[in-house]
Design brief:
Elements: E1 6-15, E2 18-28, E3 33-37, H1 44-52, E4 59-64, E5 67-68, H2 74-80, E6 82-85, H3 97-100, H4 102-108, H5 111-114, H6 118-125, H7 140-153, E7 158-162, H8 170-185, E8 189-193, H9 197-203, E9 206-211, E10 214-219, H10 221-225, H11 228-235
Parallel strand pairs: 3-8, 3-9, 6-7, 7-8
Antiparallel strand pairs: 1-2, 1-4, 4-5, 9-10
Bound molecules: adenosine-5'-diphosphate and magnesium ion.
Magnesium ion binds at residues 44-45, 87.
Length: 237
């Protein structure tokens, strides 16, 4: 692969004596839509935490646009364009939806550069009518959209969406999928971690499968659904 946007090179992560990631490697090209799947506890969120800088790695390297970011703090990675959304949305309850978009910008030191435009992001995501409500006034899907809008506020090059669709209805899943497709069309590279197979298989051009901290498979959605090792990994679920 020529000039990957993100290159994860043999990352290892331990929690005490527990090996959560065992020399996992992954490359993603600019503009790609990659699905990252695996049974519960397989290490998906841990891998994302290592990429975003929320967790230090024990071994291996992470390169973004050819630059070694392995030891950079999370806010510096955000500034470079690595942005993730959280599995459990955690907006600030005392601020409005619109104000909530400013927080990640302050954190990344981007408020001056990107402070304007927050309302455009809410419009694009379909939350503009709720801009002046507090998060407590949002429905579950609107909370997920707020989480995506907060991620978008930092103008990511790479957006990592961690289970943005869990618990949503089928129509709501389609709604979030449409937003992610639109962001990808605007040039944003997307890693989708998702348990809803219909969604991840429709969205992804390529799928990587983790099981117990190991990368066990990679391929097109069609290849992954008929991969015996993947089926075996999911049997316990
Ligand atoms: P997934 O997102 O694929 O469901 P995780 O990455 O959250 O899995 O977790 C992978 C494994 O690492 C699980 O066994 C989990 O219990 C463990 N783990 C994750 N985070 C921590 C932590 N901060 N401390 C200890 N163990 C952790
Ligand atoms: Mg997870």
């Amino acid at each position: 692969m020529a000039d990957p946007l993100l290159e994860i090179d043999s990352i290892t992560k331990r929690f005490g004596g527990f090996l959560a990631l065992d020399r996992v490697s992954l490359r993603i090209r600019a503009g790609e839509r990659l699905g990252l799947i695996g049974p519960n506890g397989s290490g998906k969120t841990t891998l994302i935490n290592c990429v975003s800088g929320a967790l230090p790695t024990d071994a291996g390297r992470i390169l973004f646009e050819g630059r070694d970011v392995t030891r950079l703090p999370a806010h510096r990675r955000t500034r470079l364009g690595i942005v993730r959304s959280f599995q459990i949305p955690k907006p600030f309850a005392s601020m409005t939806v619109l104000e909530n978009l400013g927080i990640p910008l302050e954190y990344a030191g981007l408020a001056r550069a990107h402070g304007a435009g927050a309302m455009e992001i809410l419009t694009m995501i379909g939350l503009d009518a709720k801009a002046h409500l507090r998060p407590s006034g949002l429905t579950q899907i609107e909370m997920r959209k707020l989480e995506l809008a907060r991620a978008m506020a930092a103008r990511p090059k790479l957006l990592i969406s961690d289970e943005a669709m869990a618990g949503l209805s089928s129509a709501e899943v389609d709604d979030i999928l449409a937003i992610l497709f639109r962001l990808n069309e605007q040039g944003i590279t997307i890693i989708m971690i998702e348990h809803i197979m219909r969604a991840v298989m429709r969205f992804s051009k390529r799928v990587v499968v983790l099981d117990a901290g190991n990368r066990i498979a990679e391929g097109t959605p069609a290849e992954i659904v008929r991969n015996p090792a993947v089926e075996k990994a999911y049997l316990g679920e």
